[in-house]
Amino acid sequence: MINKFARKHRFWMISGIACLLLVLWSAPLRYRIDIGHWDNISALDFHAQEFGAGTWFRWSKATSLITLAGVGAGDYWLEIQATAPAGTIATITIDDAPVYHMILQTRGFVPYRSPTIIHVPMRFGGNQLTIHVEHPSTQAQRELGIAVDDVRLIPVQWHWPDWWALFVSSIFIGLTLVWGRWWRIPAWLSVGLAIGVCGAVVVLRRGDAGYLLWQATLILGASWAIGIDLVSQRRWQPWGAISAVMVMLVMLYMSATVVFQPLWQLDIMLLVLAGLAKRRVWWRWIRPWRWWLLGVLMSALVCTGILGMAIVAIALFAIWHGRRQLPDTNRYHAVLSALYSIATVLDAWLTGRHAQIPALSAPRRVGLDVMRAFAIMSVLLGHASALYPYYPSIVTWLPHWFAYIGVECFFVLSGWLIGGLLIRHLDTWQSPQALALFLHRRWVRTLPTYWIVLGLVGVVGWGGATLGDFVPYLVFSQNIWQAHPPFLFVAWSLSIEEWFYLTAAIGLSGLAIWWRPATALRVILVVLITVPLLLRSWMALSDVPWEAGVRQLVPLRLDALAMGVVMVWWWQSRPRNGRWLQWVAVLGSVVVVVLFAMTYTQLDTPTWPRVVLLPLSTVAVACWLPGLARLEWSRWPMVTRAIQWLALISYPLYLLHTPWRLTVEGLFGNQGDTWWRDGFITIVYAVGAVWLAYRWHLLIERPLMQLRWRDDIDLIKKD
Question: Which domain holds residue 142?
Answer without folding.
Answer: 29-155
